[in-house]
Amino acid sequence: MFYHAFNGYMEHAFPLDELRPQSCGGEDSLGGYALTLIDSLDTLALLGDRDRFAASVEWIGKNLQFDINKTVSVFETTIRVLGGLLSAHLIASDYATGMKIPTYNNELLNLAEDLARRLLPAFDTPSGIPFGSVNLMHGVDEHESKITSTAGGGTLTLEFGVLSRLTKDPIFEQVTMNAVRGLWARRSRLNLVGAHINVFTGEWTQKDAGIGTSIDSFYEYLLKAYLLFGDEEYLFIFQEAYAAAMHYLYNDPWYVEVNMDSAAVVWPLFNSLQAFWPGLQVLAGDIDPAIRTHTAFFSVWKRYGFTPEGFNLATLSVQHGQRSYPLRPELMESTYWLYKATRDPQYLDAGRDMVASLQYSARCPCGFCHISDVEFHKQEDHMESFFLAETVKYLWLLFDLAVGPDNLVENGPYKYIFSTEGHLLPATPEISLVQEHCSYFGAYCHTGNMQNESSASDVASNPQETNDGSLYGRVRTRFPSGSTFSDSTPISGLIKGVCPGLTHGQKFGISYVASSHRAQEESRNLRKPTVAESHSLVVVPGQTSEYSPSENKNYHEKFSESSVGGAVSDTPQKR
């Protein structure tokens, strides 16, 4: 399936962005820089295709440039292009992956840094939340919309954070962390966020809270940024956001959209982007609700052969105007994670049904077509690049795991975090242990501050600081009763303790932007204690990742002052 689509793209569409699989042509959909090839790089490596991986990396290194007069989506460019370049760089430059290219000389990393610097002007807003689009040559247009989605502003931390750690330039991680803080500081008193926000005023223009369209990957990157970087601030935010979502949005086994202020239901709707959620719950250790929700979501797939963009839970029918299936990967992703967690063969059966639907109804002459109507399986002449980056990748990983995995993800030298585009980001020491080995890597330390400041030495000298009095922590995850995978997972290494009793706002001094007469006590009272008990996540004590100020001037000076406190106080507030 992968090569049918990939070869179709290379023969009929390359170097245009995406393939027209029915007419065997191509089209530029994002920026005109071989988008599908970039998005496919780490899938080629995962499949062990050394020749095509090396040839593709070489072509991109020699021919790709971003000095072009194109206005692009900050979100899509980050997750597809920047993420694809970084993932391929980390594979091509490392002997341990088994896919190192001898002639490779950091060309993809240099391209990634150049691209990210061209995206930086989008973050120049009073709230720290970026514009939705930016021109790669001229920056933000003066007429650019000031409205952006929550996912668009909050799903940039992994790619920009990895780039900071590889280039040892903290500006990229700083601006994306400020964007997350800017969004979270404007949450409602119910700890819910809306779908769209004005990046200048900080006012929500669409207050529908949910886990799907326009918000989905905001939740995803909170947890994954903590897992990859170890920064506990992301974990604190995720815990509060997740608890609120399970309390106000979860209508077992479905999820609804509610008003972020009142929690009144506004949409009893399943949309296909929600299907990532069970996979995220597996990473969070909340397995039981993930199983029930996946069963409900997959029942929609079984009913139509695909998941429509919208399925009305009140009428139990396809939502008008949302009848299409654009080859989305989210249900495959959750199926893979649930099989990995439970080894229940029902998920292999689900994967087989998904493959059958794609093969019999979506396959077309040069690739795989969008389905414009899930009830009549009508094909549309378009294939998104994420079909090769994610959809077939998760299906391949699912079945490879079943027969005894022999691939980079399962048996490779590192643990991998998947970006929201399915790109492989490894938890290498350079990326994940910057603070623990600050004096060794010298990544974000002042030159005169290179003493033994690692968390290991801190804990060794102050063992009483940890919560449980020990130097080790454990993560407890929830599995179905009777599961053979229900043992606690030990966390090795020395971990500095934190007090789990502090809220995120208490620890970091960040509170939601609201009228002054609303006390934070109200926020605490509105959350039922039983929710935290039934869907709780155990805090793993970890070291907060903090950068030292940088010497660079241009964007560094501006954004180092743009901490969330400043961003909130300088933004007009609706009183």
UniProtKB/TrEMBL annotation:
It is an enzyme of class 3 (hydrolase). InterPro entries: 6hp_glycosidase-like_sf, EDEM1/2/3, Glyco_hydro_47, Seven-hairpin_glycosidases. Its cofactor is Ca(2+). Keywords: Calcium, Endoplasmic reticulum, Glycoprotein, Glycosidase, Hydrolase, Metal-binding. Gene3D superfamilies: 1.50.10.10. Its EC number is 3.2.1.-. GO terms for cellular component: endoplasmic reticulum quality control compartment; membrane. Its main location: endoplasmic reticulum. It is found in: Endoplasmic reticulum. One of its GO terms (biological process) is endoplasmic reticulum mannose trimming. Residues 452-469, 542-552 have a biased composition (Polar residues). The active site is at residues 76, 216, 309, 330. Residues 452-473, 538-575 are annotated as: Disordered. Belongs to the glycosyl hydrolase 47 family. PANTHER family: ER DEGRADATION-ENHANCING ALPHA-MANNOSIDASE-LIKE PROTEIN 2 (PTHR45679). This is alpha-1,2-Mannosidase. It comes from Prunus persica.
